[in-house]
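User: Can you help me understand a structure? I only have the sequence.
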Amino acid sequence: MSKVSKKLAALVFAAVLAMALLVGCGSTPAIVGTWKAATVEASGVSMDFDAFAKQLGGDADSVKIEMVAKEDKTFSMTLMDQSQDGTWAEKDGKFVLTADGEDLEVQIEDGKLIIAEDSMGVKITFEKK
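Assistant: Let's start by predicting it. Here is the structure, written out as tokens:
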């Protein structure tokens, strides 16, 4: 084998090894990141979050609805002036948030996180910051 062939073979081997290592690392789950409420739907009426905040007598900064999901499978959610911490898991292409022993299934569609509580008729759509 010539020197050029040996160098080429070594380069190809290094590239294949690097690709294998990257594939082995996996990708970051879609839920990981900071999510901010974009729309709120209640009793069939949908409005953007700024309008919802104004109806409550505030603005999007004072009436905060936000969730931060971390790679370590923990999350924290702020709903106005209350905070909740918990864990998340991925199951069958959906995500389950668990806090205080209660599970809540959420979906990510078209890059938006959706939390729907059908029994209360409430749906909040979040966008990634």
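Now, to help you interpret it: Residues 3-24 have pLDDT under 50 and may be disordered. The radius of gyration is 22 Å. Let me know which part you'd like to focus on.
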